[in-house]
Every structure is written in C-alpha cells, then in structure tokens.
C-alpha cells in the first residue's frame, strides 16, 4: 500500500526523500541529493523557506518562498522562470530543514546555505530574465532547424 506524503508526515513528522526534476538546481541535484523535511506547524513561513506543497490534484512540488502575502505565498524553484501564485498555508505540507549531498548532511541553518539562499533571492530577476532569454533562443533555433 502506498502512502501519501501527508500520511507519512502525520505519522513520523519528518521525511527524507530524493528529488525528482531540476527545478531546485543547483541546490538539489536530481537523483543524487536528498532533502530533509519537517512537517510544518501553524506558524507563517518566511521568504527563503523551501517548502513541499501539494498542487492539486496529486502533484507534490518542492520550491522556495520568494514572497509572503497576507493570504498566501509566491513560490519559485531555484532553477525556474515562472513564479507560482496563490499557494496557501493549507497547501504547504512541510519545510526543508536540511539536505544530503555526497553523503554529508547539511542544515538550512549553516552559513553556506544561508549565503546561498540570500544569493538566490537577490538574483531572482536577472536569473529569471536570463532563463527566459535562453528558452526563447532555444525555441527560435528549434524553429529554424525544423524548417530545413
């Protein structure tokens, strides 16, 4: 019988899991790194927190909070170009407390992680602009190649 992340977090309070996809690169490498989550409490979360939330109907997403609004959050993967709006407290299941890279566990309280988070948040606009430019260029190249 398979368990949902919600069931597992309700039962154990924490979860260590491998990431799937590239949306949180370079922090988390697909199939190589693990992330460590703690079931979230009732408190409001903060800009910079990496959270696991459920996107209906059955998709789970691990991304970073980039804006806290009175009723919801704006979330963005470190390697993504599109912000996600309207993520409510009840959508968020857990908060990342650490990660494992090359067999070494790291905490989100470490200076290196905090510095990384500050850089990611500061560089959001140019990073997203660059990513969109690259995506447009790839589409143009694909169209040109496809015409031959």
Give structural notes.
With 148 residues, the chain is α+β, with helices and mostly antiparallel strands. The protein has a single domain (5-122), classed as Umud Fragment, subunit A, CATH 2.10.109. Helices cover 30% and strands 33% of the residues. It has helices spanning 5-12, 111-122, 124-147, and strands at residues 14-18, 34-39, 50-55, 59-68, 73-76, 84-87, 92-101, 104-107. Strands 1, 2, 3, 4, 5, 6, 7 and 8 form an eight-stranded antiparallel beta sheet that branches.
Features:
about 150 residues; alpha+beta; Umud Fragment, subunit A; 8-stranded antiparallel β-sheet; 3 helices; about 30% helix; about 35% strand
Topology:
Elements: H1 5-12, E1 14-18, E2 34-39, E3 50-55, E4 59-68, E5 73-76, E6 84-87, E7 92-101, E8 104-107, H2 111-122, H3 124-147
Antiparallel strand pairs: 1-2, 2-7, 3-4, 3-7, 4-5, 5-6, 7-8
